[in-house]
Design a protein that fits this description.
There is one protein chain. This protein is α+β, with helices and mostly antiparallel strands and 172 residues long. It folds into 2 domains: 119 residues, Alpha-Beta Complex (Ferredoxin Thioredoxin Reductase), CATH 3.90.460; 49 residues, Rubrerythrin, domain 2 (Single Sheet). It is built from 6 helices and 5 strands; from the N terminus they run αβαααβααβββ. Helix 1 packs across helix 2. The radius of gyration is 17 Å and the shape is globular.
Length: 172
């Protein structure tokens, strides 16, 4: 991280740490039990929030353009697959119950993210012509998979609290 860290107060770190911890536990997830390590990651989230206007993963290089970085806004699109396969997310902010209980040590894991150029070329498309007539489009939260049928996606996902821009059209 750069020297932007000096612009982050201990109070800011405390507030975001407590907020993340409350929301994470309420959603069935767990923050890394190494408090000092986790606070460093929280500081990185705050720095990125100030730098870009969104909390890009502190362990990945953000493009600085929200549309290109939607997949790495915390909690990132890769958190759940990483937790399922490795018991930690890429930056190890989120850990499984196994790691939380001390039965496994959080270790480095492989990066799942493709480059922004490849992601732009491989944007998912909604297939029409299924013969199903829908009254409303179906929206999918890219973070947790929550589905809802309505004119527009919700402002905030009721499951994981991701913002509206983290939803994608699932069925039209």
């Amino acid at each position: 991280m750069s020297n932007d860290n000096s612009a982050v107060s201990e109070q800011e770190i405390d507030r975001l740490f407590e907020k993340l911890n409350r929301e994470t536990e309420a959603s069935g997830y767990h923050l890394n039990p190494d408090i000092e390590f986790t606070r460093e990651l929280v500081m990185g989230l705050i720095v990125n929030q100030k730098r870009y206007g969104y909390m890009a993963c502190p362990c990945r290089l953000a493009a600085g353009k929200k549309q290109l970085d939607l997949d790495i806004i915390c909690p990132c699109d890769y958190r759940d697959p990483d937790l399922n396969d490795f018991d930690v997310c890429y930056c190890a902010l989120y850990v499984s119950q196994t790691v939380l209980a001390g039965n496994k040590i959080a270790e480095s894991i492989p990066e799942r993210r493709q480059s922004a150029r490849i992601r732009q070329e491989q944007k998912p498309t909604v297939q029409s012509g299924s013969g199903i007539s829908l009254s409303y489009p179906v929206w999918r939260c890219r973070v947790c998979g929550y589905l809802c049928a309505r004119e527009e996606p919700p402002e905030v996902c009721p499951i994981c609290k991701a913002k509206k821009d983290r939803f994608e059209a699932f069925l039209n």
